[in-house]
Amino acid sequence: MDETVVIYYSRTGVTLTAATQLANMLGCPKAEVADAVPRAGAYGDLRCVVDNLFRRKAGYRYSGPPLANVRDVIVMAPVWMGRLAAPMRTFLEDANTLPRLVAAVTIMARRGGLRAAQDIGDAIGREPFPVLTLVEQDIISGAARAEIKRFADAYLRARPDLSQAHRPAWLSPHEA
Ligand SMILES: Cc1cc2nc3c(=O)[nH]c(=O)nc-3n(C[C@H](O)[C@H](O)[C@H](O)COP(=O)(O)O)c2cc1C
Hints:
Layout: E1 2-8, H1 14-26, E2 30-35, H2 41-53, E3 60-63, E4 70-80, E5 83-84, H3 86-94, E6 101-108, H4 113-124, E7 131-135, H5 136-141, H6 144-162
Parallel strand pairs: 1-2, 1-4, 4-6, 6-7
Antiparallel strand pairs: 2-3, 4-5
Helix pairs in contact: 1-6, 3-4
Flavin mononucleotide binds near residues 12 and 136.
InterPro entries: Flavoprotein-like_sf
Organism: Cupriavidus pampae
Protein name: Flavodoxin
């Protein structure tokens, strides 16, 4: 059984960079939620906007360990139009074998990270814990590495408490 799995969706690679760093820090595997139909180019942009504005279900493929074999997961996904990216929202809404313990990391250009984390909570029916929001530019520059390390440490410290507590933990210093 895998203890922890980092489940990520990344259209342009920024979330993937952060997910890889976090998984390496935790020494755990990653799992990918990918688009069933690639969202390349301007038409891909448009599909992102429409899927999120109208809360449409998005086609996806999951590549990773069976969720029934996982003890806890960290969900990582970008913000689209102020909300959680549609493929991850759809995946979480569909998932009926998610472990009870779910943490969340959302990635934004500027704002919407906390709302997207709430979307994760709404999709799974409980508060994710702990929660981190990251800024795209910080991931690209490498400045986010310290925040990701703090999150990894907080996650490891929190794990014994996770089965009891569902208090919100907002670790991001950024306005989100
Ligand atoms: C359609 C669309 C809408 C977006 N809306 C927002 C937004 O509301 N707030 C924000 O901060 N960033 C927004 N972004 C930027 C992404 O969150 C950001 O580029 C992120 O790093 C992309 O992650 P990825 O490379 O893993 O796909 C949007 C991006 C797209 C494509």
